[in-house]
Amino acid sequence: MWRDALLVAGKDLRIEARSKVAVGQVAPFAVVVLVLFGLALGPAVGPGSVLHAATAGLFWVTVLLATVLAVQRSFSLEASDGASDGLRMSGLDPAGIFVGKAAAVSAELVSLEVLLALVSSILYGRHLAGVALLLASAVVATVGLVAVGTTYGVVSIGSRQRETLLPLLFFPMAAPVVLAATKCWEAALAGTPGRGTGWLDVLAVFAVAYVAIGAVAFGPLLEDA
Amino acid sequence: MSITSTRPASGHPLLGGERSDGQRGVGSAPVGPTKRARVAVRAVGVAAVASVAADLVLGLWVTPPDEFMGNLVRLLYIHPALAWVMYIAYGVSFLSSLLYLWPRTRALRWDRLAGASSEVGVVFTGLTLVTGSIWGRPTWGAWWTWDPLLTTTALLFVLYLGYLAVRRIPAEPEARARRSAIAALVAFVDVPIAYFSVLWWRSLHQTPTVDNPINGKTAIHGSMAWTLLLSFVAFSLVYLWLVVHRCRLAVLAEREEGEGLVLAIEQRRAEADGGGR
Questions:
Q1: What's the gap between Cα B189 and its chain centre?
Q2: Which of A182, A188, B39, B237 has the least C-beta neighbours within 10 A?
Q3: Residue B81 lies in a domain
C-alpha cells in the first residue's frame, strides 16, 4: 500500500511540477481572498483591529477555499483521457491511491499555508508567535481536510454536477477541523500555546478518523466513479 | 423501528419489496401493495392525523401554562418530538445503509428506505431548527446562538442535504446505492455528536426533560407529561407514514423509468408502422 501511495503521490506532484496549476492559480487565488478579507474588514490593522483579532479564522477559511480548488484539480487530472479507468485497472491498492492523492494535495497545501501565513501576517499586522504549534496544527488539520476532501472528490468525479457538489459535501465535514485549527492558531498567535494543545488533540482525532474512512471507502467509490 | 428489523424474505409489502432487486421488471404483471398492507398504511395515516390533532388540542388548550415560561411552554409539545423523529430518521437511514453495504442483505429496498428516511429526516431537522429558533427568541433573547447543539444540528441539516444531492447524481442504481450508502455512513458521524453535545458541553440548551441522563429524573408531570408523550407518538406515526409513502413513490418512479422506455419505443414503432403505409 505504501509503495502504491508513493507512486501516486509522485505522479501527482510531477504533474504539478510540470503544469504549475497550484502555483499559478490556487496560490494567487488564496492571496486574493486574503486581500479581499482585508478590504471587507479593514483598513485598520494591528492590535485592537478586527483584522488583527480575526487573523486565525480568516486564514483557515482561506485555506478551506484553497483546499476545494486543490482537490478539484487533483481529480480533474483523473477525469480526462480515461485516466480514471487507467487508475482502476492499474492494480494499485485503492487505499494506496487514496493515501497517495491525499498526500500530494497535503504537501501542496502545507507549502501554500506557509506562504499564506506570511502574507496574512504582513497584511493584517499580526506577529507570528508560537511557530511550533502553528506548524503542527497546520499539518494535522491539512491532513484531515484533504482526507475528507479526497473522499468526496472521488464521489463527484465524472459527474456533471462536480464543481457545485464538492463544496456542499465537503464544507460541513470540514467545519469541525476548521474550528479546531482556528482555536489552535488563536492560542498560538496570542502567545499562550498551552491553551491550544487540547484542540490539537481534536484535530488529530478528526485527521485519523477521516483518513481511516477515506482509506476504506475509496475503493468502492472509485469503482463506481 | 419494525421496518428495519424486517428480514427481506420475499419482500415487504410496505417497502415495495415485491419487485426483485436490480431488475427493472419491464413488462411484468403490475404488482401493488396487498390489500392488507394498504389498509395498514391507511390506518397509520389516520392514526397520525388524529394523534397530531389531539396533541394540538391538548397542547394548546388543555394543558396549563408553565410556572416559569408561561404559554411558551406549549412549544414543548412539538419541538422535542420533532428532534426525536429527526434522530430516528437518521438512525434508520444509517442502519439501512449498513444493511445495503453488507453483502448478505444487499437489496435496493434498503437504499430506498435510507433515501426516504433521510429525506423525511431533513424536513424534520428543518422544522426542529425553526421551532427551536421561535422558542429561543423569547427565552434566550436571540433567534440563533452558537450553542453546540444548535450548531451541530444545523450541520446535520447541511450534511444530509449533501447526502440527498449525492443521491441525485445520475448513475446506475447499484452504483448510486453504494455511493449513497457510504455518504450516509459518513454523514451519520455528526448524529451522536449532536445528541450528546448538551451533556458534553453544559451550554445554553437544556438537558433532556424526560429521563435526564445526568440525574435520572423526569422533570415533568401530569397532563403536560402525557401530552409530551403523545407528541412523540404522534410525530413518530407521521414519520412512519411519510417514509412508507416515499418508499412506494420511489418504487413507482423506478417502474416508470423502466416501463416508460418500453412504452415510448412501442409508440414510436406504431407511429412508424402507421406512416409506412
A1: 17
A2: B39
A3: yes
Per residue of chain A (225 residues), give pLDDT as tens: 888 888 888 888 888 888 888 888 889 999 999 999 988 887 777 777 888 888 889 999 999 999 999 998 888 888 777 777 788 888 888 888 899 999 999 999 999 999 999 998 888 888 888 788 888 899 999 999 999 999 888 877 766 666 778 888 888 888 889 988 998 888 888 888 778 788 888 888 888 988 998 888 888 888 776
Range of the domain at B153: 33-276
* Facing residue for A224 by CB, picked from B155, B178, B190: B178
Nearest Cα to Cα of residue B22 among B140, B246, B215, B178 = B178
Size of interface A-B (CB pairs under 8 A): 50
CA dist A126 and A111 (Å) reads 20
Residues of chain B with Cβ-Cβ distance to A165 below 8 Å are 162, 165-166, 169
Task: Name the nearest CA neighbour of B17 among B40, B41, B1, B33.
Answer: B33
Chain B residue numbers with beta carbons less than 8 Å from the beta carbon of A155 are 166, 169, 179, 182-183
Q: What chain B residue is nearest to A223 in terms of C-alpha separation?
A: B175
Considering only CB atoms, A221 lies closest to which of B170, B182, B189, namely B182
Q: Which amino acid, B9?
A: A
Residues of A in contact with B168 (CB under 8 A): 161
CATH number, domain at B151? 1.20.120
Q: What is the ipTM of this complex?
A: 0.76
User: Is a pLDDT exceeding 90 seen at residue B235?
Assistant: yes
- And the C-alpha cell for A63? 485555506
Cβ–Cβ under 8 Å, residues A95 and A154: no
- Chain A 105-164, residues with CB within 8 Å of chain B CB atoms: 151, 155-156, 159-161
Q: Half-sphere exposure of A148 toward its Cβ, with a 13 Å CA cutoff? A: 28
Q: Does the residue B61 lie in any domain?
A: yes
| pLDDT one-digit tens code per residue, B133-187 | 988 888 888 888 888 888 889 889 988 998 998 888 877 888 888 888 988 988 8
- Whether residue B203 is predicted with pLDDT greater than 50 in this model: the reply is yes
pLDDT above 80: residue B122: yes
Torsion, Cα B25 B31 B34 B39, to 10 degrees, reads 100
Q: Where are the domains of chain A?
A: 2-224
Would you tell me the crossing angle of helices B148-167 and B108-140 to the nearest 10 degrees? 150
- Whether A151 contacts A218, CB under 8 Å: yes
Domain count, chain B: 1
A-chain CB neighbours of B175 within 8 Å are: 223-224
